[in-house]
Amino acid sequence: MTDTDPGPTTGFPLPHRDGLGPLPEFTALRRDAPCARIRLPSGDPAWLVTRYADVRTVLGDPRFSRTRATRGTGPRMASVPTLPDSILAADPPEHTRLRKLIAPAFTARRAQAMRRDMARLVSGLLDALTAHDRPADLVPLFTRPLPLAVICDLLGTPRQDGDRLDAWCDTLRNLTAAPDAAVTAAVDEMTGYLAALVAAKRRHPADDVVSTLIAAHDDGERLTQEELISFCLVLLVGGYGTTADRLAGMVHLLLDEPGRYRRLCRAPDTIPRAAEELLRYAQTNVQANLRVATEDVELGGVTIAEGEAVMAVNSSANHDETVFEDPGRLDLDRAHNPHLSFGYGVHHCVGAQIARVQLQEALAGLVHRLPDLRAAAPPRWKTGLKTRAPRTLPVTW
Amino acid sequence: MPSGDDPATASDGTLRAHIDPELCVGSGICLATAPRHFEPTMDARSRARPDAPPADDRAQDAAALCPMEAIHFVRAREPTPRTAPPEARS
Ligand code: HEM
Ligand code: SF4
Predict the structure, then answer these.
(1) Would you say the CB of residue B29 lies under 6 angstroms from ligand 2?
(2) Highest-confidence segment of A85-94, A164-173, B21-30
(3) Which of B24, B33, B37 best tests the A interface by mutation, with the highest count of A CBs <10 A?
(4) Which residues of A touch B88 (CB under 8 A)?
(5) Domain A24-396, CATH class in plain words
């Protein structure tokens, strides 16, 4: 029991809205109820945290545990367990052991070294696109195949399984669109697929991340088989689905107001800064991975009791009026931009540096090759997922 | 005068972590991995705690996880005080 009145329960999930603009529900919560009571799809209660400083505390403070939100008993997002062996479910020091295995492959330096290859991939996809009939859908022709090729090359997995991976990724990030049984089935299928892949790789190791992880498993006690499979799964889902959705969303935001796209065509050297602002502005995540408090914590005017679940939403933090000037404005020149789109703390996106280079090269390729690119029709949107993203992106040039 | 923080001139002493502010992107990985060694700055980056204990395995882990390779260790002349402030946890 706490002596603070949590107020009435806020509706959750938020009502779906097409687009990526700031959601009025988050704006109101930041103002009126920065730690709000919600009920999760599982029926369990949780706190929805929406202000920048509080979101950073939840993500960066060891008193909030991912392990307790994924293993044993306690409040859950949904009734199906999701990947209790993965890096995203581990707390330090276990998390540290797992992350150290892959950290060397994901430094900014390594990502920069991949830039040329990524530019070549972009160029190849744009060759095919420009040979395509107009209008064309940029999602299957560009925003999906690019991150798929990048992550497959990095992990050392075959590129041709994209359609299957795509369906699995969407199901795994499902919030309301698929029944729990479908999520469990997707995890099972993907686990089977990856186990076969690991077996094949074990016979033919190469200079890639999956081979590195297999070596860590085979060399001794540094990685269990379950951890190995979960690791591959999280890397695939994170590296592919998330990046594909983000890229599609960025291109949509640029074409939605053609002046933005023209600006990047005129000044392609501003793309890195523009990409950060697009990452900040787009309220892609309408929810977040749960954490559970390991002791009582004061946050946003309430006491979060030990054992209670917390959902800290980075896309709301990115629009916090006390941190970002005029946050509702998409300002491609924004200088002070400490956005949390890649998270914060130990789980800060391991692929952030690779994602950045990839997004920059994708935008650079588009403005260079297709300066007349424009929307041919409004996109259709994915619905019922933890993230918002265009399902289609009809364009012409 | 030689300074205790200067790796070129430092003599024997304890190892202390140092974050290059030019490289740090404020991921928060280090301070969440080794909270007794690192803390946030006002400009959304991280830095070594002035009152950090001598670098240990946790601090080394944080350095290994930094995606910007921004964390280095220098020999301090004076051992740093062992007492951490009340909000420090590890
Ligand atoms: C624009 C693209 C991307 C965005 C916006 C993004 C966002 C995020 C966020 C917010 C988290 C933290 C989740 C949490 O704390 O609950 C995360 C973690 C993660 N991401 Fe990404 N990501 C992107 C691309 C990638 C790529 C390209 C990869 C792989 C190559 C990747 C792999 C991962 C992994 C493995 C984690 C878990 C890290 C850990 O638990 O230590 N992501 N990502
Ligand atoms: S891990 Fe590296 S980049 Fe991240 S906050 Fe620490 S020093 Fe900065």
Answers:
(1) yes
(2) B21-30
(3) B33
(4) none
(5) mainly alpha
